[in-house]
Design brief:
single chain; 114 residues; Arc Repressor Mutant, subunit A; 48% helix; Transcriptional regulator
């Protein structure tokens, strides 16, 4: 009996996550929408890419998820054919205390004003 190889995606280790990469990843409205969606899930919960509706093409969506993953903002794992996404809140809070909550609060306030 053979098993199919696991498709693994590269993620930075916690100590490799850089503030400037996180800030860059969070600076785009589409990526911020993904982070907001994942932050609203329960702790440790994930969502498939297809569950997060973005008004952009599939290839552009893939790019935004890759930027978030490579910056260390989200983790992605394959579950069957779907990529499951989860916010790396624990890593971000440990490295940059209060940053994620501040960004999400500022985003909510800005959306409230609009």
């Amino acid at each position: 009996m053979s098993t199919s190889p696991t498709r693994a995606l590269d993620h930075p280790e916690r100590e490799e996550i850089r503030l400037e990469a996180v800030l860059h990843a969070l600076s785009d409205p589409m990526r911020l929408q993904v982070v907001r969606f994942l932050a609203e899930l329960g702790e440790g919960e994930g969502a498939a890419c297809s569950a997060i509706e973005l008004a952009i093409s599939k290839s552009t969506t893939t790019h935004h998820f890759r930027v978030l993953r490579e910056a260390g903002v989200i983790s992605q794992v394959y579950q069957g054919t779907a990529k499951m996404n989860a916010l790396r809140r624990g890593d971000l809070d440990a490295l940059f205390p209060g940053l994620l909550e501040s960004v999400l609060s500022a985003d909510a306030a800005q959306r409230q004003r609009a």
